[in-house]
Amino acid sequence: LRRHAAGTGTDRRQQIAQCLYVDMRRDEIGGGVEEIFQRRHFARLHQAEMRYRMLFNICAAAILIVDADSPRIVATNPAAGRLLETPSQKLVNRTFPRGLSATAAEEVEELLLRVRAAGTAEDITVRNDNDAVLQPTATLIRREDGTYFLVRIITPGGEMADTSNQKVLQVVGKSPDSFIVTDAAGIVLAANKAFL
Fold first, then answer.
1. Could you give the CA distance from residue 153 to residue 111 in angstroms, rounded to a whole number?
2. Which residues pair with residue 182 across a beta bridge?
3. How far apart are the first and last CA of the chain?
4. What's the rounded Cα separation, in Å, for the pair 7 and 1?
5. SS3 of 25, please?
6. What is the pLDDT of residues 91-136, one digit of tens each?
7. Are 97 and 106 within 8 A, CB to CB?
8. For the whole model, what pTM was predicted?
9. Which is nearest to 88 in space by CA: 77, 97, 102?
């Protein structure tokens, strides 16, 4: 009986040691799986961000993201730099509107005030000093870190806009993300395979 008890004690210690070893391995393996999952998730987010950044950069419309409280320019695309005749990197952290005639800047400021108050505003058309016709629109974006305006300024017509639109549609068509293209009235003009 004593021998059986001793044997059982030894067996039990071995079983406990094996269980501890298995639990430790499970934690190591589980930690590894979680780390792999996090890396894959980060990679997918990074790829999606790169796709949106590419669309942002090839868009023919001038796009500016403006802090609604300051109004400091947070980000711009290359088209905004061309339109406002300042490299897009130099526009960041400057106040908006800039690069527009005094009259056009006043009208854009009023547009932003209406969007801030009502959440939306009718589209406007302004003329710059060089008599260029501009059509700015603004959308209010609320995020955890603040409120921003997404300002889009287009110059009606133009071959460059058509070329850029074709590039955007090509990128959107091949994207794994769902996309639809609508007109100003919200009528769907195109949708990619991922959306369908």
1. 12
2. 188
3. 74
4. 10
5. helix
6. 899 988 887 888 888 999 999 999 988 877 888 888 877 777 888 8
7. no
8. 0.63
9. 77
